């Protein structure tokens, strides 16, 4: 393990049996898991290079139980790591040796469907896809669609502010929420928002969304649902140069077209995907774009023509347009299977997640090629081209000593490059533990201190999901101190009127 | 009164630090166009950001705009308009409602977070603010967010700053997402529906697959003395219900026809195009029926956000109980209510109805003595109020910035 977690509190570990007994009183039945064998499935999340058995797993099934567990932990100085389906790619749900792992998997009910207000109230353990399925009969769906949507929970989506292929047009999780119920570390239950478009007062829902389980435990969520677009069609366009594909993306957007999805794959990713699913991808191109247009039929047909023309103008070498739903899904099948496809050509891979200004793409891909040579590790790229979100997949073999470290160093270099060209460390996977120590590449200590002060407003003892997101932890008392700078001579050289 | 006109972010930092040292709260203004919104602020020092007015960068192909917080909205809007782009949340121009000469600065617009009709489709100011540079009440310059559309690095601090009315930080530079302007727009006009029927029509439209980007209802009595675009289409004492569709021309036209069919049980819809349609929505956005130059200039105006499908019933109850006027946007989810003047702007009665509906109400326009007497922002349950106060404290423990503007208890 190359990323260090906070040292376990031996005093807490010494009380393990008593803690387990106390938790069993709060969550009866099979809701408390403490045997090593049964805790095994909870040792890691989607960042599988890291594993850690928790002190104990607790699986409550009511808000009241969550509240009692947190209150108990708060009063007894016990850390808590919340977990949804455990699909985080950044280690957000990685257990700590001295922490309670609080699983929300039993919160599986859709509580209310309100078509008139275009809102669905769900429990956090409901999967992303299940929401769309629950409303599909009336032509509605829930727009954010992370690749893991079959498995990932909506609670996890809120914690991570998950995106997906369609986020360019329909936004991320944060843009599709109406309300939530959260339990603070103290056990206090808070409800923000509801079925209204805006919450009152400060946008607490906005700060909770994407807070990676550090601010509270989400126990209920109200999402907004949309009518499914009448139709969707896709173009699959090949380019002999990555630059041409990049230009095409820019030109589509400057033409005022916001596609439902706009994905790019580079040559290694195209080859891996094609070998895996036989989607009919051209193998002699350097870059492949899949552009999906959705909406009313007449609009989609017209925009398909416009995009095709733009692509030709950018030097596309191949262009296929889907004429049936089956064909559209075939185009996507390779892209959607890109991660497992890469898994077939390499024993292990690390999936990175930076975002860059779109214009910087050719430069970033060129530099990545140089790094790949330097580290001696292959890299395949899939890219949410519309919103500049890169997913370089670094190929390595964990069984070769030192390769994980090498892959992580390569990944860190890629993320530093993203920041250098004006981008950010993570577009949708979250900071978690994976990018925690890179935060200073993007934020100064002052920036991070302000974020940690917000944490203090929610969890002053720092018991909720510690060791994630922030590279260094400060005491809240220290962060809250106001320094009086200089004397009282106000504004000596400011113009006065 | 001391007015400190800052030239750059360092000046802001210096001013806030000096204010901390001298325990002197600061009122933060751009052009001051929304100064009369909120609880009155007790201070005699004003921090004026209007000189921080540069466009840092505008990259139409990236759909990204970075400007200093004091940049005039008028300039920013004309800049992005020149590239056929827009803020898709349709920020409200408050000048007509509040009776100010100026439409204000971009920092003020984000701090107020007043989104227009397209909020139902595209979200609000909070959804389009990607990054900020700001100075906290600790006197520290910090940044949050970034300059790309997709970013989950660290807490989403931008969400808190949008709509915080300058009580958390002084924003010095902001990065916003811009979007292409639609090629065409069409507005369906239905006449003579009462509030409940109109609410149903709007609900049906918003639940249709036709991608509605505006749904408003204006009762006949509210239109009676309205000037401008809304006055022109009004017939005497008849309500109008407006439903907007945008997109490429062929699509907007076809959807307008299809939606008319869907809504035929509500009457025969007229279809207005482009410029005529746009003028109507600008008037809805800016709440011109309650303009400060009109006959209801002296009436306090409430902005009520409520679950949309029951908005008609709530609005009707408010209008009846108060002898006031209401207009509806966001398919019923936003109600503007102008009520006959009273010492408390009828806050108690109004909030009782709004609470029962699951909404919240903000007093956007009222004389200073009224704003002193009532909670301008909706009172919150104890737990959320306390959490909100802890969050505010995490940015500004000495309550230097716009002290008490959002909370009566703090304005001492």
Descriptive notes:
The complex is a heterodimer of chains A (497) and B (412). Chain A has 497 residues and is an alpha+beta fold. Among the domains of chain A are: 110-227, Uridine Diphospho-n-acetylenolpyruvylglucosamine Reductase, domain 3, CATH 3.30.465.10; 231-420, Vanillyl-alcohol Oxidase, Chain A, domain 3, CATH 3.40.462.40. Helices cover 35% and strands 19% of the residues of chain A. Chain A has helices spanning 10-14, 16-26, 36-39, 63-75, 128-135, 154-160, 167-170, 204-208, 242-254, 267-277, 297-313, 325-336, 338-345, 361-375, 403-420, 439-442, 445-458, 476-479; strands spanning 32-33, 56-58, 79-83, 99-103, 110-114, 119-122, 140-141, 177-183, 189-193, 217-224, 226-227, 231-239, 261-266, 287-295, 316-321, 348-351, 379-384, 389-396. Chain A has a seven-stranded antiparallel β-sheet with strand order 15-12-14-13-17-18-16, sandwiched between helices. A five-stranded antiparallel β-sheet of chain A has the order 5-6-10-8-9. A four-stranded mixed β-sheet of chain A has the order 1-2-4-3, with helices on one face. In chain A, a hairpin with a 4-residue loop joins strand 5 and strand 6 (119-122). In chain A, helix 9 packs across helix 11 (297-313) and helix 14 runs antiparallel to helix 15 (403-420). The N and C termini of chain A lie far apart (61 Å). The model of chain A has no long low-confidence stretch (mean pLDDT 94). With 412 residues, chain B is of the alpha+beta class. Chain B has helices spanning 9-21, 73-81, 95-98, 106-112, 119-122, 125-128, 157-161, 195-206, 220-223, 228-233, 249-262, 274-285, 311-322, 347-357, 368-373, 382-395, and strands at 2-5, 27-29, 45-48, 55-59, 64-68, 85-86, 129-136, 141-145, 169-177, 179-180, 184-191, 212-218, 240-247, 270-273, 301-305, 325-329, 334-338, 360-365. In chain B, the strands form five sheets. Chain B has a five-stranded antiparallel β-sheet with strand order 4-5-9-7-8. A four-stranded antiparallel β-sheet of chain B has the order 12-13-11-14, with helices on both faces. A four-stranded antiparallel β-sheet of chain B has the order 16-17-15-18, with helices on one face. In chain B, a hairpin with a 4-residue loop joins strand 7 and strand 8. Chain A: Keywords: FAD, Flavoprotein, Oxidoreductase. Chain A: This is Glycolate oxidase subunit GlcD. Chain A: Its cofactor is FAD. Chain A: Residues 50-228 form the FAD-binding PCMH-type domain.
């Amino acid at each position: 393990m190359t990323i260090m977690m906070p040292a376990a509190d031996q005093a807490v570990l010494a009380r393990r049996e008593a803690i387990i007994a106390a938790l069993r009183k709060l969550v009866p039945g099979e809701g408390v898991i403490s045997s090593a064998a049964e805790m095994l499935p909870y040792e890691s999340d989607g960042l599988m290079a890291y594993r850690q058995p928790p002190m104990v797993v607790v699986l409550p099934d009511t808000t009241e139980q969550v509240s009692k567990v947190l209150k108990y932990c708060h009063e007894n100085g016990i850390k808590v790591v919340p977990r949804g389906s455990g699909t985080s790619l950044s280690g957000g749900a990685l257990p700590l040796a001295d922490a309670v792992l609080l699983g929300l998997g039993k919160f599986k009910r859709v509580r209310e469907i309100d078509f008139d207000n275009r809102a669905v109230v769900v429990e956090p353990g409901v999967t992303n896809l299940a929401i769309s399925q629950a409303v599909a009969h009336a032509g509605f769906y829930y727009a954010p669609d992370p690749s893991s949507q079959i498995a990932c929970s909506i609670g996890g989506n809120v914690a991570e502010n998950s995106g997906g292929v369609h986020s360019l047009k329909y936004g991320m999780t944060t843009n599709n929420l109406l309300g939530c119920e959260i339990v603070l570390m103290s056990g206090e239950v808070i409800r923000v928002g509801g079925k209204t478009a805006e919450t009152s007062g400060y946008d607490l829902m906005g700060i909770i969304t994407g807070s990676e389980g550090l601010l509270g435990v989400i126990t209920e969520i109200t999402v907004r649902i949309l009518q499914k677009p009448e139709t969707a069609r896709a173009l699959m366009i090949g380019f002999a140069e990555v630059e041409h594909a990049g230009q095409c993306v820019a030109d589509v957007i400057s033409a005022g077209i916001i596609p439902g999805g706009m994905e790019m794959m580079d040559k290694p990713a195209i080859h891996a995907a094609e070998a895996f699913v036989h989607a009919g991808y051209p193998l002699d191109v350097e870059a492949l774009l899949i552009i999906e247009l959705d909406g009313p039929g007449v609009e989609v047909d017209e925009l398909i023509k416009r995009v095709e023309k733009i692509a030709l103008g950018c030097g596309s070498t191949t262009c296929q347009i889907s004429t049936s739903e089956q064909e559209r899904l075939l185009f996507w099948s390779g892209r959607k299977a890109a991660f497992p496809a890469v898994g077939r050509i390499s024993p292990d891979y690390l999936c990175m997640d930076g975002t860059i200004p779109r214009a910087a793409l050719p430069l970033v891909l060129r530099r990545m090629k140089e790094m790949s040579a330097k580290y001696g590790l292959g890299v395949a790229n899939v890219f949410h081209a519309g919103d500049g979100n890169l997913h370089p997949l670094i190929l390595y073999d964990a069984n070769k000593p030192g390769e994980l470290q090498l892959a992580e160093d390569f990944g860190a270099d890629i993320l530093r490059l993203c920041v250098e060209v004006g981008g950010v460390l993570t577009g949708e996977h979250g900071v978690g533990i994976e990018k925690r120590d890179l935060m200073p590449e993007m934020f100064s200590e002052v920036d991070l201190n302000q974020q940690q002060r917000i944490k203090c407003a929610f969890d002053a003892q720092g018991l909720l999901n510690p060791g994630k997101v922030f590279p260094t932890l400060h005491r809240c008392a220290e962060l809250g101190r106001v320094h009086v700078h200089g004397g009282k001579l106000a504004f000596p050289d400011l113009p006065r009127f | 009164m001391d007015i400190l006109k800052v030239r750059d972010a360092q000046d802001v930092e210096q001013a806030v630090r000096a204010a901390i040292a001298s325990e002197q709260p600061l009122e933060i203004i751009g052009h001051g166009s929304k100064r009369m919104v909120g609880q009155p602020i007790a201070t005699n020092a004003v921090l004026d950001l209007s000189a921080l007015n540069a466009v840092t960068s505008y990259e139409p192909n990236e759909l990204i705009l970075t400007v200093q917080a004091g940049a005039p909205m008028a300039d920013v809007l004309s800049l992005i308009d020149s590239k056929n782009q827009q803020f898709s949340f349709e920020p409200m121009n408050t000048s007509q409602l509040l009776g100010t000469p100026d439409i204000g600065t971009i920092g003020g617009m984000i701090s107020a977070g007043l989104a227009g009709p397209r909020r139902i489709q595209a979200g609000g100011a909070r959804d389009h603010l990607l990054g900020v540079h700001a100075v906290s009440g600790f006197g520290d310059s910090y940044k949050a967010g970034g300059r790309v559309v997709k970013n989950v690095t660290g807490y989403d601090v931008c969400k808190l700053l949008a709509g915080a009315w300058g009580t958390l930080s002084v924003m010095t530079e902001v990065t916003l997402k811009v979007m292409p302007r639609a090629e065409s727009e069409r507005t369906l006009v239905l006449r003579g529906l009462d509030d409940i029927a109109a609410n149903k029509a709007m609900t049906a439209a918003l639940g249709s697959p036709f991608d509605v980007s505006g749904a408003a209802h204006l009762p006949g009595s509210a239109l009676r003395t309205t000037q401008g675009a809304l006055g022109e289409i009004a017939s005497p004492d008849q309500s109008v219900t407006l439903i907007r569709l945008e997109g490429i021309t062929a699509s907007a036209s076809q959807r307008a026809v299809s939606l008319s069919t869907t809504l035929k049980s509500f009457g025969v819809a007229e279809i207005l195009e482009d410029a005529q349609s746009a003028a109507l929505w600008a008037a809805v956005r800016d709440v011109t029926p309650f303009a400060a130059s009109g006959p209801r200039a002296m009436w306090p105006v409430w902005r009520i956000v409520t679950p949309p499908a029951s908005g008609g019933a709530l609005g009707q109850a408010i209008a009846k109980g108060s002898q006031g006027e209401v207009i509806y946007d966001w398919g019923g989810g936003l109600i503007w209510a102008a009520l006959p003047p009273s010492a408390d702007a009828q806050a108690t009665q109004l909030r009782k109805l709004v609470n029962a509906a699951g909404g919240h109400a903000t007093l956007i326009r009222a004389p200073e003595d009224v704003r002193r007497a009532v909670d301008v922002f909706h009172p919150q349950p104890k737990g959320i109020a306390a959490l909100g106060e802890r969050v505010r404290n995490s940015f500004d423990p000495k309550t230097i910035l716009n002290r008490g503007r959002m909370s009566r208890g703090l304005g001492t």
